[in-house]
Amino acid sequence: MRESLHKSQTIADDVVSILGSFDHRLSALETAMRPTQNTFYRKAHGNIDKTLKAAEVILAQFDLSRQGVWAHYRAFPQVQAYAYAYARLH
């Protein structure tokens, strides 16, 4: 019984040592990766901002096109009827 208890205690001590070593190595890895992560997040944020600005420009162009098309449809009633029928079918 004592031998079994001693083996269990030895195994528990080894596991605690392994976990402590793992935690220390993981902390060192996180510290080493932090500058890389910060750079990545900064670049990702910049890319997202650029993409959103480009999307706003594209949407503005679509709005201008749509306004021009509807102005054309108002000027020509027969085209307006066609556009209405086309929009209903699609």
Description:
The chain has 90 residues and is mainly α. It has one domain. Helices cover 97% and strands 0% of the residues. It contains two helices and no strands. It has helices at residues 2-75, 77-89. Helix 1 (2-75) packs antiparallel against helix 2 (77-89). The longest helix is centred in the middle third of the chain and has 74 residues, at 2-75. It is elongated. The model has no long low-confidence stretch (mean pLDDT 84).
Which properties best describe this structure?
90 residues, mainly alpha, 2 helices, 0% strand
Main sheet makeup: none
- What's the helix count? 2
Count the domains. 1
Measured between the Cα atoms of the first and last residue, the distance is 82 Å
Strand content: under 5%
Low-confidence stretches: none
How many strand segments? 0
Helix amount, in percent? over 70%
Average pLDDT for all residues: 84
Radius of gyration over C-alpha positions, nearest whole angstrom: 33 Å
Query: What pattern of helices and strands is seen along the backbone?
Result: HH
- Going by helix content, strand content and strand pairing, the class is mainly alpha
| Oligomeric category | single chain
- General shape: elongated
